[in-house]
C-alpha cells in the first residue's frame, strides 16, 4: 500500500457512484471520482465481469495489469441485469446512490426497465453519465462505438501518419476513451454542483467521437472559412510553426521533439546549434520566411540532430532555453528524473498476486486534498456480500439464495 497517503478528508467523500459500464471511458470517469473520495461500486455480470479484466498483460490472479490499474479503488459487486431479481437489486442500489456511469448502446437500459426516466423517478437526485460511440441521438446512435473508430470519425486519425501515407493510430488506441472519461467526469462534477443548488439530478450524454473532435484546434473554423483541409505531415507539423516536429538523433532509435512557435524560440535554437546567423531577419529569423522555406529549415535541423547523441543535444537546447524534449519510451519514463521527482509512478503492493504493481499516479494534483489509491482493481464479486448486506440490508440466507439463482 502507498505509505505516502494521508487521512485528509477528500472532496468527494460521501458521494456514492455505481459503475455499471465496461472497458475504459465511463469506468475511467468513475475511477477519477474514486481517487478523490467517492465510494465506487462496480456492478459486473457474474458471468465473467467487465471485459477489461482480460485486456492486456495477465497476472497470477488471472485478470490483467490494465484492470488492476484502471479499476483501482472500486468495489466489485456481481449482478445479472438480465434477470428480474438483478434489476430490482440494481434499482435499490440507485435509490441509495448519487451517480450512475453506464456505456450500453442507446436503448439497452430502457429494454431492461432501467432507462433514465425510470431511474430518475426512483432517485430524482441521480446523476447519470451515458457514454456511447455516437451519443444518445442522431442517425448513428445505434452503431457500435470504439475509440479507434472515434479517432477516425472525429478527425484525428486522418492527420496521423506520413504525407500521402496510410493514416495511423494517433498514439494509443484508447485516447478517445480516456478523453471521453475526462469529459464525463467534468460533466458529473458540474451536475453535482447544479444539484447542490437545485436538488435535481440530470444525465450527461457523452459521445466518443465528440471528445476526439473537440481536440482538433482550428480544423473546423479553417475549413468553414477557407475550405482548408489539413493533411498528414508526418513527424513535422507545418501549418503553424517551423521547426515544429520530431527529429532523429545520432543514437539508434532515439528522437527529440523541437517546437519553435515564435521567432525568439528559433533564435534560441539557432544559438544551441552554434549557428546564430540562421536567426537573422534576412535568413530564417522571421516565422513567415521559415514557413516558406520549411523543408530547408527542417533539413538543417534534422542534420544537426543527427550529428549529436540525444543527451548532448538536449543539454545544448536546455542551456540555450530552446524548447526540446526526448520522445520517451516507457523505459525512458521509468528512468526520467522528472517522473520520479513528481511521483508520477506509484508502487502498490498487491497481496493477491504477491507482487508490487507500478501504476500512474492520481491526476490532477490538488495541494490540500490530493487523490489517493487505496487499492488496485478488485477480484470479481469481491464486495458483493458486503454491499448487499451493508447497503441494502439483505440477510445472509437471501444472498445465498440469489447466488444459487445466479443473480449474483
Automatic annotation (TrEMBL):
Under the GO molecular function aspect, what terms does this record hold?
CoA-transferase activity
Query: What UniProt keywords apply to this chain's record, in alphabetical order?
Result: Transferase
Entry-linked Pfam families: CoA_transf_3
User: Membrane spanning segments where?
Assistant: none
Can you name this protein? L-carnitine dehydratase/bile acid-inducible protein F
Q: Which Gene3D superfamilies match?
A: Crotonobetainyl-coa:carnitine coa-transferase, domain 1, formyl-coa transferase, domain 3
InterPro entries in the record: CoA-transferase_III_domain, CoA-Trfase_fam_III, CoA-Trfase_III_dom3_sf, CoA-Trfase_III_dom_1_sf
SUPFAM superfamilies, sorted: CoA-transferase family III (CaiB/BaiF)
Amino acid at each position: 500500500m502507498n505509505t505516502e497517503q494521508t487521512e485528509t478528508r477528500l472532496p468527494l467523500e460521501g458521494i456514492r457512484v455505481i459503475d455499471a459500464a465496461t472497458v475504459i471511458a465511463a469506468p475511467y470517469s468513475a475511477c477519477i471520482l474514486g481517487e478523490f473520495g467517492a465510494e465506487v461500486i462496480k456492478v459486473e455480470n457474474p458471468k465473467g465481469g467487465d471485459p477489461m479484466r482480460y485486456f492486456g498483460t495477465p497476472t497470477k490472479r488471472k485478470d490483467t495489469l490494465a484492470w488492476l490499474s484502471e479499476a483501482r479503488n472500486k468495489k466489485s459487486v456481481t449482478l445479472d441485469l438480465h434477470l428480474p431479481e438483478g434489476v430490482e437489486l440494481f434499482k435499490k442500489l440507485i435509490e441509495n446512490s448519487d451517480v450512475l456511469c453506464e456505456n450500453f448502446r442507446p436503448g439497452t437500459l430502457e429494454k431492461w426497465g432501467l432507462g433514465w426516466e425510470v431511474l430518475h423517478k426512483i432517485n430524482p437526485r441521480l446523476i447519470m453519465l451515458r457514454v456511447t460511440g455516437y451519443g444518445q441521438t442522431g442517425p448513428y446512435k445505434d452503431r457500435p462505438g470504439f475509440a479507434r473508430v472515434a479517432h477516425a470519425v472525429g478527425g484525428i486519425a486522418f492527420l496521423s501518419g506520413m504525407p500521402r501515407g496510410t493514416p495511423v493510430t494517433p498514439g494509443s488506441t484508447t485516447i478517445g476513451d480516456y478523453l471521453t472519461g475526462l469529459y464525463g467526469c467534468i460533466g458529473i462534477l458540474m451536475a453535482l454542483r447544479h444539484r447542490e443548488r437545485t436538488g435535481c439530478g440530470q444525465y450527461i450524454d457523452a459521445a466518443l467521437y465528440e471528445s476526439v473532435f473537440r481536440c482538433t484546434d482550428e480544423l473546423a473554423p479553417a475549413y468553414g472559412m477557407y475550405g482548408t483541409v489539413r493533411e498528414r505531415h508526418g513527424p513535422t507539423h507545418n501549418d503553424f510553426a517551423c521547426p515544429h516536429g520530431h527529429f532523429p538523433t545520432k543514437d539508434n532509435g532515439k528522437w527529440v521533439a523541437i517546437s519553435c512557435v515564435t521567432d525568439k524560440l528559433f533564435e534560441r535554437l539557432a544559438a544551441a546549434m552554434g549557428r546564430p546567423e540562421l536567426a537573422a531577419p534576412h535568413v530564417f529569423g522571421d516565422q513567415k520566411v521559415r514557413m516558406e522555406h520549411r523543408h530547408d529549415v527542417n533539413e538543417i535541423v534534422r542534420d544537426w540532430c543527427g550529428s549529436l547523441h540525444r543527451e548532448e543535444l538536449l543539454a545544448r537546447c536546455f542551456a540555450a532555453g530552446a524548447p526540446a524534449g526526448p520522445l520517451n519510451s516507457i523505459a525512458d519514463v521509468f528512468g526520467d528524473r522528472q517522473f520520479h521527482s513528481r511521483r508520477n509512478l506509484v508502487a502498490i503492493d498487491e497481496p493477491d498476486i504477491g507482487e508490487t504493481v507500478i501504476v500512474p499516479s492520481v491526476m490532477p494534483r490538488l495541494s490540500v486534498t490530493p487523490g489517493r489509491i487505496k487499492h488496485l482493481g478488485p477480484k470479481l464479486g469481491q464486495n458483493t456480500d458486503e454491499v448487499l448486506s451493508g447497503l441494502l440490508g439483505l440477510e445472509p440466507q437471501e444472498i445465498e439464495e440469489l447466488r444459487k439463482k445466479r443473480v449474483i
